[in-house]
Specification:
It is built from 8 helices and 7 strands. With 259 residues, the chain is of the alpha/beta class. The structure holds NADP nicotinamide-adenine-dinucleotide phosphate.
Length: 259
Amino acid sequence: MPSWPESCGVVVGVANKRSLAWAIARAAHAAGARLVLTYQNERLRENVEDLAATLDPAPLLLPCDVSLDADIAALFARVGAEWPDGLDFLVHGAAFAPREAISEPFLKTSREAWRVALDVSAYSLVALANGAAPLMAARGGGSMLTLTYLGSERVFPNYNVMGVAKAALEASVRYLASDLGPQNIRVNAISAGPVKTLAAAGVSGFSSILRVYQERAPLRRNIETAEVAEAALFLLGPAGRGVTAEVLHVDCGYHAMGM
Ligand code: NAP
């Protein structure tokens, strides 16, 4: 990957100023990267537009609902036109599960809620990787990063089908890393500790998760989004060039604890 000031990347999953993807976008911008930010639909465009306007130079904004193949194809066609020399990195921070699936018992998960959660939160990485890979290959390599949570490995109250989706997402990271490694394209995930964002607020009882982490994580506190962003820059940039197929826990060490 070129040094940050010459690099360009696509960031998917900025909803508002608390979004983990926004923290990563800001850090990459501060390091000198040029950015494309996406928004899911016209209704949500204004939020992302206001945030993008705080960066100079402002990132290009493009629509992309990650559940629509046509949106993904249009996104990367436009990115390819914008940056004919290719793309260096992709940040995937999109996740969604229908509200009832993250508030009712997991046993009650409907086929439709399962389909939507796994489509938006896991398959979307595969679809975006397909669009991004040729542009990264043209550049001689690249780096993809997604965001996951420990609910893929352990049971957390009400995380439910999202935990299943994150398990699929983490497995997808390994398979994509295997497919794309020969083109010098790396694929990794950050398993972040809990942060009160829009998506997190949808999980019933989320504040009790925050409280337990603070009490029991080795560092006895919750993470800050800046810590996720700095770890992301490591995995996305030249310092992480030997790392792929990895799930890096940025969670104040909580994942290591038995109780
Ligand atoms: P967030 O700000 O709500 O971000 C989630 C993003 O997913 C939003 O930008 C949302 O866009 C987007 N999204 C949902 N459906 C989409 C679709 N069909 N097409 C395109 N985008 C779509 O929450 P966040 O916590 O920062 O989440 C970012 C990632 O971090 C997620 O993968 C999440 O699971 C993961 N994560 C979060 C935590 C945490 O505690 N917050 C911990 C570990 C991992 P709209 O709002 O515009 O729909």
